[in-house]
Amino acid sequence: MELLIAREIGSAAFAPGEYVEQQSFMRAGEIRELAERAGIGPGVSVLDLCCGVAGPGRFITRELGCDYLGVDASAGAVEIASARARGLPCRFQVGRVPPLPAGRFDAVLLLETMLAFPDKATLLAAVAAALVPGGRFAFTLEAGAPLTAKERALMPNADTVWLTPVDEMVRLLEDAGLRVTWRADVSASHRATAEALHAAYAANGPAIVAELGAQGLEDLLTSHRLWSAWLASGRVRKLALVAESGSDPERRA
Predict the structure, then answer these.
(1) What's the predicted TM-score (pTM) here?
(2) SS3 (DSSP) at 247
(3) Mean pLDDT over the full length of the chain
(4) Less crowded by CB within 10 Å, the N or C end of the chain?
């Protein structure tokens, strides 16, 4: 979506100061709290997975200071992120995840994208291997039972929607050598954001149709309507979590 339209939608859907070019339901305050809970600050090395145009990454770097590396499969998104990060200690790479970039990091971020990975065990093993001992993995989770066939038929791009129950995610983290140290339920705020974004997309319908086509607008409206309903009913819970690496993954039996 073009920058001008995205900014208009973000300004309409988020309270003042809460939009930082994120392509998600997270508010700036939630992004900062999660980063702080992960111990991000000056001198901390951070790997941001699936960073997109890196609105949250640039925000965290400005607000908290860190040595930041963002990675995304979209060369176009990385090009935009690099241009907007001028003057900040940010680096970017184009690449699919997993695998992860070489090196070890104090913190790994995965914001609003855990949903897209059907094979979470392989992803978590790669994250654990990328963390220094005592490093932190900060992420958001759409928690719930897998979609039914009927639900998958309703949700646009359902091949990127892989819900996971909380207990299963905790087990997968533990199997990878990661222990949950903090979590918060942000379902209510993300439901409100989904509803606000739905209204903003509808209000900007003609501009979105001109860029994405009528089906593109319909998909945006449908998906946000479904997320709002699922978060309201408890079908899906939205969580923010931090998990810590307890030992060197290369030394675990």
Answers:
(1) 0.93
(2) coil
(3) 94
(4) C
